[in-house]
Amino acid sequence: MIKGCKICGVKDSDTLNYIINHTHPPKFIGFICNYPKSSRYVEPKLLKKLLNVKKNKSEFVAVLVKPNNKILEEIKSLSFDYYQLYDCTPDEIKIIKQKYQKKIITAFTINDESDVLKYKSYVDVTDLYLFDGKGYEKSHSFDHKLIKNIKLNKELMLAGNIKFDDNLKNYEKITNYLDLSGGLETSGLKDTSKIDIFLNNLNKLKNET
Q1: Which of 11, 23, 63, 140 is the most buried (most CB within 10 A)?
Q2: Cα–Cα distance measured from residue 41 to residue 2, given in angstroms and rounded to the nearest whole number
Q3: CB 162 within 8 A of CB 181
Q4: Each residue's pLDDT tens digit, 1-19
Q5: Integer distance in angstroms from the first to the last C-alpha of the chain?
Q6: In this structure, what CATH number is given to the domain that contains residue 123?
C-alpha cells in the first residue's frame, strides 16, 4: 500500500515553499548534498539558507553518495530527519547513524536480483529501504518484478523514472512510498504544475484504499 511520497532534488526556495505548503504535502523532501554531477546538487553553504523554513508535515532527507567526514560535519546541524545513503557498507552506515543520530534510508541501485538481495546485509542499520535504478541523477528505471515478492522487515521506497502522471495503482502492491525527481521537472527544473498533479493524484489513491 502506498502511504506517501518523497519529492527529491529540491534546490530553490520557491519550489520548497510550494511543496511544504501544498494541501497534500509529501512525507519526505530530498536534497542532493554531495553529488555535484547532479544538476540538483545544492552546495552546503546554500543548504543552510534553503532549509531555514518551517517543515510543516514533511521530513527533510539529505541525499548522500558515500559521504566523507567533511560533508557529514558540514550538514550535521541542519534540519535533516533522514540521511539517504548510497554506496555505503553496513559498518559505515552504523557509524554514521550512531554519530549523527539520524534515521537512515539505505539506497540500492538495481540492475538484477543480486542487487536486490544486498538489502539483507543492512537489516540492522536501515530504517527505510530505497530501491532505485542504476542511473543515479539520470533516473533509469528497472524491472519491478525483481522486488515484487521480497519480504522486507522495514518499509520500502521506490525510485527510478517514475512520472508525475503515471497510473499510481501500478505501484500499490510493491512499495510504501514513491520517490520522484526528474519526473516532476520540465527542462531540468521542478514544475509546480506537475508536482500539483502528482500530489493530488496520490492523495486520491490513498483515499480510495
Answers
A1: 63
A2: 28
A3: no
A4: 899 999 999 999 999 999 9
A5: 8
A6: 3.20.20.70
User: Three-state DSSP class for 158?
Assistant: strand
Handedness of CA 119, 120, 125, 126 (dihedral sign): positive
Q: Is 116 exposed, middle or buried (0-12, 13-18, 19+ CB in 10 A)?
A: middle
* 7 secondary structure, DSSP code: E
Tell me the three cell numbers of residue 5: 511520497
Which pTM does this prediction carry? 0.95
Instruction: State percent of the chain over pLDDT 90.
Output: 85
Cα–Cα distance, 45 to 134 (Å, whole number): 29
Cell of 141: 528505471
- HSE-CB at 207 with a 13 A cutoff on CA atoms is 7
Tell which wins on pLDDT, 9 or 144: 9
194 is in which domain, residue-wise?
A: 4-208
| Helical spans, DSSP H, in the chain | 13-20, 44-50, 69-75, 90-100, 113-116, 192-208
CB 15 within 8 A of CB 25: no
Q: Write b or e for each residue in 126-164: b if 16 or more Cβ atoms lie within 10 A of its Cβ, otherwise e.
A: bebbbbbbeebbebeebebebbeeeeeeeebbbbbbbeb
